[in-house]
Amino acid sequence: MNEELLLRAVAALEHLANPGLRWEDIIALSVGLVQCSLIAWGLWLIRQSARHRDQHHEETMVALRQQGEVLQRRNERSDQQHEENMLALKVLIERTSR
User: Fold this and answer.
1) What is the pLDDT of residues 31-45, one digit of tens each?
2) Cα atoms in the 13 Å half-sphere on the side-chain side of 93
3) In angstroms, rounded to a whole number, what is the distance separating the alpha carbons of residues 84 and 75?
4) CA distances in angstroms from 71 to 17, 48, 66, 77, listed in the order given
């Protein structure tokens, strides 16, 4: 066991003394770069999706506000017509009650 530990220590020291890139290091670096690029692409997609969702939400809110204004005007006209009808009915009731 001590001999194995000694061999590992020597191998580690040799690696420190000769830190040239090995194929394993190049492959690990490549995999890491691919992972980073996939993460960056995924974040970009999420950001684009959020922008699209926000734009769609704003368009929907504008349409709803416009629809609300139309309904409000229609309601005001209906209320005004109701008041006129009630006044005409009151006048008719007063005339017929005499």
Assistant:
1) 989 999 999 999 999
2) 6
3) 14
4) 81, 35, 9, 10
- In the three-class reduction of DSSP (H, G, I as helix; E, B as strand; rest coil), residue 21 is classed as coil
Interacting residues of 39 by C-beta distance below 8 A, sequence separation 6+: none
DSSP 18: S
- The sign of the torsion formed by the CA atoms of 41, 46, 49, 54 equals negative
The Cα–Cα gap between 33 and 3 comes to 37
CA angle 39, 43, 48 (to 5 degrees): 150
pLDDT in tens, 27-84: 888 898 999 999 999 999 999 999 999 999 999 999 999 999 999 999 999 999 999 9
Structure tokens at 22: 């090995």
Q: Which helix (H) or strand (E) holds 40?
A: helix 23-96
